[in-house]
Every structure is written in C-alpha cells, then in structure tokens.
C-alpha cells in the first residue's frame, strides 16, 4: 500500500485509492466470513482473522483455513490496478491456544488476543513473500500433514504451503459441512453469513458494541451516511507508541500494564484533540496507534498537540510502567 499511496498526487487519486483498498479488503473479508472465520482486526495493511474452536477440532479447521487461504491467494494474491501499482498479499497461519483481553473504560474498549500462537502467526506472515502462504511450526504440527504439500523453510519455525491434496471438490464440501458443526455462529443461508444478523434489537448489547467503535465512525453511522462515505483518505498526524515488555513477564501482569497504558494514552490523546485508534500486539509487546485530524477533530495545531502528547506519554511510561521499554 505504501508505494501505491505515494504515487497518488491529486485528491481525486487519493479518493480512488481509498475505494480500491476498501473493495479489495471487503472481498477478502467476505471470503473469510464464507469460510466461517471472524475478522478480529484490520490495522493499516494487516488483517487478523480468527476461527474459534475446541482443541480436538483444530486439525479439521486448519484444513479449512488452508483451503480458504489458497482460494484467497488465487483470487486476490496479486491485484493489478490501472495506476500501475500491484497490491500483493502475504498470508501467515498459526494454531493453538490464545488469550482474549479487553482493555479500556466505560467509554471506549479494545479487544486484544495474546499468546505464543499470536506471535507465531505474525512470524509466519513476515516470512511469506508476495502470493505465498506460510504455516507456523505449531500449526504444521497440529494439522493433517498428509493433506498438505509444503516446503520446510526453517526447522522448528515455519513451512511454506504449496498446495493441498484434496483433488475432488466433493471431498472438500463434505469436510466443509463437518466443520460447520464446530462454528455455531455460522449461517448456511445464501443471504446471511452470521447468526448475529438475525438477533432481535438489544439496546444493552448495542451499547456494549459501540464502545469498540471510534466516535467519528459512530457519528457517521448514527447520521445514516452511506457506506461509501465512511471510507476516506485524509491527511492526519499519527503517534505510534510501542511498549516492549520483558520476556519473562506473566500474562496477567502484561494485561495490567496494557490497561494502565491504554487509559493514560487515550486520556492524553483525547485532551489534545486526537483518538486512540487501535491497540495491537507484536512478538514482545504492544503498539498504540493514535490519530489526530479525523473528521470532526481537525485542528490547526495538531502536530504540536501530537508532540506534546507524545512527551507526556513517554514520561508517564518511563516513570510508571516497570519492566517495559
């Protein structure tokens, strides 16, 4: 995406890029949903999808997800644009136990997943080249290996998926319907992919879900703006806060550190007219993506506010968050 955005010189080009990226991501999202996965997070040019099942169902689900990934690469792996820049897709797969963490307060909340296998999927994705699929070593150990054609990339680290040995499509259809028994939120209706769409109105549930959406987007949704106006390209100022934790820190302690940092960072950023947009994990820590200049928040001195906020956040983390860099 970076080279593509740099090639856009006019506002019209930026709007076109926003729409291309929106439709491209939407096609991938729809494919994941059709295969029973859920979209956990989309941050910049990275999409994190999750299939939640029991331990004894993992090998079947890995087969399902591998098939989904192969189809996605076949259809969207290299996307040619009229601007001459190609969008290229890299996919990493991992499997195993993860922890779900919700941080925030009564106004805004953020859902995170943490654990060794979250680190594993990030490593696998980084090792993949354009139009490739890479499995983490744990994913490889848990799958039905006889069904996969692979290339060992690094012993005890990752394998590259070449193809699957399911030749007859009827064999996979049978496997697909078997996996649907593991995914109760999935609907086989041609029009509806998730049971949530059939739920009766529930004001308490709606208020809970609204905490996970930025206020700028909520305002547009509440005003009934068409979906095509929700996606846009804007000139903004960003602050990226990276917290690196000590490798021996316990998960519960990490959660407390992330919660403490999130509350302080969001308060400081909002005071300066910005928003804490995303929190996402990486191998040894977590990142907080803060944005100044979103719709309704545009101010003339946003760069100065960003700098002041950054200094305040740095001082707080340095003085109050032990065992972090």
UniProtKB/TrEMBL annotation:
Keywords, ordered alphabetically: ATP-binding, Lyase, Nucleotide-binding
InterPro entries xrefs: A/G_cyclase, Nucleotide_cyclase
GO BP field: cyclic nucleotide biosynthetic process; intracellular signal transduction
Keyword ATP-binding: yes
Residues of the Guanylate cyclase domain: 47-152
Signal sequence region: none
Name this polypeptide is given: Guanylate cyclase domain-containing protein
Lineage: Eukaryota, Metazoa, Chordata, Craniata, Vertebrata
């Amino acid at each position: 995406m970076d080279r593509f955005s740099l090639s856009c010189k006019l506002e019209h080009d930026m709007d076109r890029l926003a729409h291309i990226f929106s439709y491209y991501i939407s096609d991938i999202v729809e494919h994941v949903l059709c295969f029973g996965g859920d979209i956990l997070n989309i941050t910049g040019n990275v999409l994190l999808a999750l299939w939640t099942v029991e331990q004894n169902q993992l090998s079947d689900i890995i087969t399902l997800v591998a098939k989904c990934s192969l189809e996605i690469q076949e259809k969207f792996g290299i996307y040619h644009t009229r601007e001459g820049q190609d969008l290229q897709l890299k996919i990493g797969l991992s499997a195993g136990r993860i922890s779900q963490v919700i941080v925030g307060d009564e106004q805004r909340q953020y859902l995170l997943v943490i654990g060794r296998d979250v680190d594993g999927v990030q490593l696998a994705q980084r090792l993949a080249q354009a139009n490739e699929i890479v499995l983490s070593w744990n994913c490889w150990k848990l799958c039905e290996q006889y069904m996969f054609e692979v290339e060992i990339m690094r012993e005890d680290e990752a394998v590259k998926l070449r193809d699957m040995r399911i030749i007859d499509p009827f064999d996979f259809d049978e496997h697909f319907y078997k996996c649907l028994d593991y995914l109760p939120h999935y609907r086989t209706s041609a029009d509806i992919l998730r049971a949530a769409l059939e739920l009766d109105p529930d004001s308490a549930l709606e208020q809970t879900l609204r905490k996970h959406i930025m206020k700028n987007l909520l305002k547009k949704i509440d005003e009934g703006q068409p979906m095509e106006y929700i996606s846009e390209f804007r000139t903004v100022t960003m602050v990226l806060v990276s917290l690196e934790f000590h490798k021996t820190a316990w998960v519960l302690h990490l959660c407390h550190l992330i919660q403490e940092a999130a509350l302080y960072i969001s308060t400081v950023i909002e005071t300066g007219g910005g928003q804490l947009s995303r929190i996402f994990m990486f191998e040894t820590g977590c990142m907080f993506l803060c944005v100044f200049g979103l719709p309704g928040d545009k101010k003339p001195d946003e760069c100065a506010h960003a700098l002041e906020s950054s200094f305040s956040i740095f001082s707080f983390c340095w003085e109050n968050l032990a065992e972090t860099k």
